[in-house]
Amino acid sequence: MLVIVYFLSTLFYSIECFINENDDDSWKELSFSLRSDNGTIKSAHIQWTDRFDDSFAYAYTNENRSDLKFLYDKPRPELFVTNKFIMEAFTQFLDFFQNRTKIQKVTVTIPSMTDDLKKVTKRNNKYATKPNVDSFRFNSYDSSLYTEFLKLSSGIPKILKISFYYYPERTENILNGSILYHSKVRKVGELDLRTVESDISDAGLNQLECESISVRSSTITNAGINKILKEWQDGLRSTRYLKVVSDDVQKAEIMDGVSKRTLQRGVWEIKNRYNVSATVTVFDTYQMTYSGDREPLLRQDSRDCEDTSQILKMADACYTNSSWFFPGKKERIIPKAILLSIGLYLIYMAVDQYQIAMREVESRECSDVLADCENIPFNQTLIPPFYNYLQDFTISPRYDLSYCLVPKSLSTIGTSTICYINDPVSFTNDNRTISTETYGKRKRKVPERDLDEVREELTGGKSHHSTFGSIARDEFDRLMREDHAIRRAIHRMYYYDFQLLGYPM
Q1: Range 113-135 average pLDDT
Q2: Entry pTM
Q3: N or C: which end of the chain has fewer CB within 10 A?
Q4: How much is the CA Rg of the chain, to the nearest whole Å?
Q5: Phi-psi domain of 278 (left: phi exceeds 0; alpha: psi -120 through 50; beta: other)
């Protein structure tokens, strides 16, 4: 009964997996972008990657020219020429978005949501679905864009990143910090606003429940950061990483009342009530630049460099700045892991050296034994057998097989097997079977064509181990003729081969 139940459950599970596999309409990536030239939007682009890693692209424009630069993109886009190219492209993008059940990453790059685009997002589509999106990236300052797409998707995204549409916007616009109060934004796994200036307040930052937060704001105060540190020490926050770039950072105000241990200048170690440690790093100035003559990666026109920045890195286990890679462990686990790795490596090297030494000892011992045996006449130190069994070898030239017949060790089955593979038709026609062969019936005449092939191989010098016609062969032939014991042993080993091939004894 249990076997039947197990079989039926396995069958139903297999059918369900097969149906889900066929019905899987998930995509890995979907993106929409508007490309401009000198402030004028020239084209709209849709690109997607399905679950099989195949990428496709559409390009919409109102210019029917063959020298368009985006025609050389990879993947090469399918071109659509229309007057209302922005509307038609965005409609197609939304159709793709609302016909998937899951999309790993969605990217939208537009300067702002026009009234026509808002109408498209609010259209009545009874067949539309709400896809589950893992990662959203919006290259726009328009908060209505984030709100609409968060409304059109299901679940809470793991990553939300907001950046600028074009670089000059970074010094002209300020992101509205009210987006942090959105129910989904508050609980995303990773919130990344580090490339846009925002007016986020202490209250907006404090109400976030994200595990990773990166923000840039001049309105966040030292007292707000200090409050987050104290709440983390009290075990009230699950934040693992926090980076705040602000104008006025005062180390004394940030670390006021926080239990800490100084690691170096501007770097402290703090612990929470669960004995989990984190590092706090405060820089007076912060600037990231490319090498050579390139411009700064992060730059504000009103300052020579970023005035100040403050970085808080919180992890479940750490002793140094790399702590957040090991959540949930105790402090100083990295030095222990290093010592453990070194110990395992030393053990591995010791075992390896021992194996090498043992191989050398075995090789040396074997060489000494063989050297001592060279001066001993053949067969004088060996105990003669109690009874001389026949030393037989059966061969199958067709398959390059040779079988040594050891009496009472499946020799009859081995002989019949070689007979069968040499000539299966005759073997079957004689009403013989491998399992019913007897000692008296197992010998069978080898076909003449096989004998000719063996003779040709032995005398033609074609095989890699052949010594026919060589100087070494003549020398060993002389030694064999002079030593009767060697010659007698050779006769015993190859007696039937000599008889079968017709060689003189």
Answers
A1: 89
A2: 0.54
A3: N
A4: 41
A5: beta
> For the residues of 348-393, what is the DSSP string, one character each?
HHHHHHHHHHHHHHHHHHHHHHHHHHTTSPTTSSSPPPSS----EE
Q: Which amino acid is at 428?
A: T
What distance in Å separates the CA atoms of residue 30 and residue 179, rounded to the nearest whole number?
23
- For residues 365 and 371, give the distance between their C-alpha atoms in angstroms, rounded to a whole number: 10
Residue 498 tokens, joined: 């000599």
The helices-and-strands tally (H runs, E runs) of the chain is 14, 16
Q: What mean pLDDT comes out for the span 410-418?
A: 82
Pairing of strands 78-81, 102-109: unpaired
pLDDT value for 2: 40
What are the residue boundaries of the structural domains of the chain, listed by start?
26-287, 383-460, 468-504
Whole-number Å distance between alpha carbons of 276 and 446: 82
pLDDT exceeds cutoff 80 at 66? no
pLDDT at 462: 55
Measured distance CA(62)–CA(79) in Å, rounded:
10
Mean pLDDT comparison of 103-112, 409-418, 456-465, highest-scoring range: 103-112
- Would you say the C-alpha torsion 334, 339, 342, 343 has a positive or negative sign? negative
Residue of 211, 216, 207, 267 lying closest to 241 (CA atoms): 211
**Tokens 């000198």, residue located:** 38
Distance between CA atoms of residues 287 and 103, nearest Å: 35
* Segment 289-303, tens digit of pLDDT: 223 332 322 222 333
pLDDT of the residue at 362: 64
How many Cβ atoms are within 10 Å of 24's Cβ, its own excluded? 11
Could you give the count of Cα atoms lying within 13 Å of 145 in the half-sphere of its Cβ? 27
What's the rounded Cα separation, in Å, for the pair 80 and 85?
8
Secondary structure of 125-174 in HEC code, one letter for each residue? CCCCCCCEEEEEEEECCCHHHHHHHHHHCECCCCEEEEECCCCCHHHHCC
Q: What is the largest CA-CA distance in the chain?
A: 110
Structure-model confidence comparison of residues 502 and 148, the more confident one: 148
CA distance 279 to 209: 20
Is the confidence at residue 161, as pLDDT, over 90? yes
Q: Which of 101-115, 151-165, 340-354 has the lowest mean pLDDT?
A: 340-354
